[in-house]
Design brief:
single chain, alpha+beta, 3-stranded antiparallel β-sheet, 41% helix, Helix-turn-helix domain-containing protein
């Protein structure tokens, strides 16, 4: 099977993780979440989002603002 890596924007990543865009940006800045710089901005791979979700979610607390 040929798997193609999918990348997501910060707002998409925030929606998938159930957190705010600020939380995703902070996680990238602090190294909790790895991102790739593309021509149009930062992107987070699907594999990285899966890793973040499987970490038990301790760092990903849902927020009321989006």
């Amino acid at each position: 099977m040929n798997a193609k890596t999918t990348f997501h924007t910060i707002p998409e990543s925030a929606w998938i993780l159930g957190v705010s865009r600020n939380t995703v940006s902070r996680a990238i800045r602090t190294g909790m979440l790895r991102a790739t710089l593309c021509r149009s901005g930062l992107r987070v791979s699907s594999a990285e989002l899966i890793r973040a979700l499987q970490d038990g979610g301790a760092a990903w607390k849902p927020t009321t603002s989006g």
